[in-house]
Every structure is written in structure tokens, then in C-alpha cells.
Amino acid sequence: MQRLQLQSLVYSLFVLLFISCKSYKLTDVKPVQDSEKTVENLYFSSGEDYVYKCQMDIYKNHVSGILIIKKLNETTHRVAMTSDFGNKLIDFEISENDFKLNYVLPDLDKKIVINFLENDFRELLKKQYPVNESFENSNSKIYSSKAGNKTYYLFFNKENGLLKEIVYTKNNKEKIDFTFEAKKHIFADSLNLQHKDFKINIKLIQITETEQN
């Protein structure tokens, strides 16, 4: 059953059709003067293992398993995923400029799958964002960070200062929306990654110590 799910997932990735994306624009915000020159996503900055239940929905296909993210050094993370049955699916090391594939299940060993995972996790694990503009609304402080044809919008909760959302755009088109639920700056209890030009959604839910025992 798991193999059939993986084969169906790979097939869906091959037949994905692009849909037009609307230009992204902040609404109901006002520009503000802010002293921040750089803001950071610290959710994967600890040396401890980050262990999550992972659910991936790609069009009508659903795959679940366990995902582990490990910070190896200041620039590189290791990401590994196993199926619900404990079989290793993929294992790779990733930084801003490098990608090393340690293992991939043959059913998943397709360029489109590897590129999809590499690109998504590179954006997720990006830590530092130079600030170009600052905004606010009633709930959030918002920072805009530009890098070439990419723009990132980072939303921080005004009450607790925690990062709650990153909107990633390319050529002014919204590509991926990352939303977080967290109680502390270095660990997200849950994460939802939603593509805007594909019907792809990845959800990570923290595995508690009780569940691991």
C-alpha cells in the first residue's frame, strides 16, 4: 500500500499543471520606521533533533511518515523521512548553496521529486533575512526582505514576538505560504507549508516526548 501511494505521488508530480498566480500585495498594513536590519527564522536553529509527524498532500495523494530535521552546523541541516512503517524514504543534507542526497527510496528517485523537496526545504530552513521595508497591522510586525527576484514577507506576533508566517514570492507571484504555531523562538510546534501554484501541502506536527517513548 505504501509503495502504491509513493508511485501515485510521483505520477502526480509529473502531471502537475501550473495555474496562474495573482500578484502578492500586503493589505491593511501601514509602513513603519524600524531599527531592525535583519530578522531571523530561529525555529530550526537548535542543535537538538526536530521530530515531526509529516503529512504530504499532493493533489489527491496523501503520504505520511516521520520527519527529522537536524542542524549539523551553522549553514547545513540534515533532513530524513521515514514511512509510518519505519522504512527510510529519503535522507539529505542541505544548505543555502549545497545539496547532498544521502539516500532516496527507488520509488522516489525522480528528479522532479528531489527538486521539489530541495527547493521547499531550502526555503523553510532559510535563517537570515535582510530587511528592506517594515510594516505593521493590528496583530503583526511585518518585514519585507528582497533577494533578486524573490521577496519574503515575515509576520511576527506583536504580543510574543514569535514568527507566525512567511510568505515567499517570486517575480511578485506568491509561491509558498509557511505558517507556524509555536511557544518559543527556537521550536515550532506545528508548521503548514502550502504551495500557491500547485495543489501541494505539507504539514508538520510536533511529536511529544510522550509519543516518542
Brief overview, please?
The protein has 213 residues and is mostly beta strands. It contains three helices and 15 strands.
Poorly predicted regions are 14-20
The proportion of residues forming helix, as a percent range, comes to 10-25%
Radius of gyration: 18 Å
Distance between the termini: 27 Å
**Largest sheet, strands/sense/barrel:** 13 strands, antiparallel
Rounded mean pLDDT is 87
With strands numbered from the N-terminus, the spatial order across the biggest sheet is 1-9-10-11-12-13-14-15-3-4-5-6-7
Coarse structural class: mainly beta
Shape by Cα distribution: globular
Tally of DSSP β-strands: 15
- Please report which band the strand proportion falls in: under 5%, 5-15%, 15-25%, 25-35%, 35-45% or over 45%: over 45%
Number of helices: 3
Topology (SSEs and partners):
Blueprint: H1 2-14, E1 30-31, E2 38-40, E3 50-58, E4 61-71, E5 77-83, E6 88-94, E7 99-104, H2 111-124, E8 128-130, E9 133-136, E10 140-147, E11 150-157, E12 163-170, E13 173-184, E14 187-195, E15 200-206, H3 209-212
Antiparallel strand pairs: 1-9, 2-8, 3-4, 3-15, 4-5, 5-6, 6-7, 9-10, 10-11, 11-12, 12-13, 13-14, 14-15
Give a structural overview.
Strands 1-9-10-11-12-13-14-15-3-4-5-6-7 form a 13-stranded antiparallel beta sheet. The two termini are 27 Å apart. 15% of the residues lie in helices and 49% in strands. The chain has helices at 2-14, 111-124, 209-212, and strands at 30-31, 38-40, 50-58, 61-71, 77-83, 88-94, 99-104, 128-130, 133-136, 140-147, 150-157, 163-170, 173-184, 187-195, 200-206. With 213 residues, it is mostly beta strands. It has 3 helices and 15 strands.
